[in-house]
From TrEMBL:
<comment type="similarity">
    <text>Belongs to the class-II pyridine nucleotide-disulfide oxidoreductase family.</text>
</comment>
<dbReference type="GO" id="GO:0005737">
    <property type="term" value="C:cytoplasm"/>
</dbReference>
<dbReference type="InterPro" id="IPR023753">
    <property type="entry name" value="FAD/NAD-binding_dom"/>
</dbReference>
<feature type="domain" description="FAD/NAD(P)-binding">
    <location>
        <begin position="5"/>
        <end position="298"/>
    </location>
</feature>
<keyword id="KW-0274">FAD</keyword>
<keyword id="KW-0285">Flavoprotein</keyword>
<dbReference type="InterPro" id="IPR050097">
    <property type="entry name" value="Ferredoxin-NADP_redctase_2"/>
</dbReference>
<dbReference type="Pfam" id="PF07992">
    <property type="entry name" value="Pyr_redox_2"/>
</dbReference>
<keyword id="KW-1015">Disulfide bond</keyword>
<dbReference type="InterPro" id="IPR005982">
    <property type="entry name" value="Thioredox_Rdtase"/>
</dbReference>
<keyword id="KW-0560">Oxidoreductase</keyword>
<comment type="subunit">
    <text>Homodimer.</text>
</comment>
<keyword id="KW-0521">NADP</keyword>
<dbReference type="GO" id="GO:0004791">
    <property type="term" value="F:thioredoxin-disulfide reductase (NADPH) activity"/>
</dbReference>
<dbReference type="InterPro" id="IPR036188">
    <property type="entry name" value="FAD/NAD-bd_sf"/>
</dbReference>
<dbReference type="GO" id="GO:0019430">
    <property type="term" value="P:removal of superoxide radicals"/>
</dbReference>
<dbReference type="InterPro" id="IPR008255">
    <property type="entry name" value="Pyr_nucl-diS_OxRdtase_2_AS"/>
</dbReference>
Amino acid sequence: MENIYDVVIIGAGPAGLSAGIYAGRATLKTLIIEKQRTGGQIVTTNEVENYPGSIREATGPTLIARMVEQAEEFGAERISDDITEVDFSDKIKVVRGQKGEYKAKSVIIATGAKPRLLNCPGEKELTGKGVSYCATCDGAFFTDFDVYVIGGGDAAVEEALFLTKFARKVTIVHRRDQLRAAKLIQEKAFKNEKIDFIWNSEVKEIKGNGLVEAMVLRNRETGEETEIVANEEDGTFGIFIFIGYMPQTEVFKDVIAMDERGYIIADDNMKTNVEGVFVAGDCRVKPLRQVVTAAADGAIAAVQAEKYIDNNFDE
């Protein structure tokens, strides 16, 4: 007999795992597919202070570990595969990956987003060699070194605060003359003696032979360029980039309705423009991208998928 799932969930971040918990608990035959590390962005976050009930005890990895355990407890299957093609034209949806083909009565897209790049010379070559997009992953490597954080939103300032636990000094480089982060987060940063600021500036180039050794900044108002060179004794410094994210939705292009940035459009019930296909988490159009909203999206998507199956498929 052909193996057809009730729900295939693409992505195993908080949105996908939440969907898996709700779908599994509803006794739906559920498959969660993740191409990289389970947990998405949150698994690289040290402190999760704003997820209800997580204060003082939850980190990104521990929170995700509990979600995974819960989804599996309710019977959700998990596999690793990179989805390369989808066919949503028929009642039974087809999802194709590098390792196999998967069929389902409904699909929940929870592919999330990934960090946006500066796209300046030297960035790619020195990624992992001083350039990082994850303070939790790499912060300890820069204990007693200088660190520069590029960006001015919530993520940038929060990660800058985290990096003060390790770095000798943290400098936030922002392209505007004021931060975009929430006021409470800004206040913490301004009060922290280890944090400095460089305003109205953007990174033009990152230099180094095997490790980051220098960075060229351009003042957006005057056009003046300044080269920051590593301390002679240190020989290097850290550059942590937090300038936003890009939705991981390329495989759904021309299949699912999206906005101009590539975020999937859905209604309050997580329904896309394709019957039987739902979306949850950071890859959809929404005003707030946080773990708590991703988990809520996943729960709603799974409940709506269950209703869709009940209404469109006979026992």
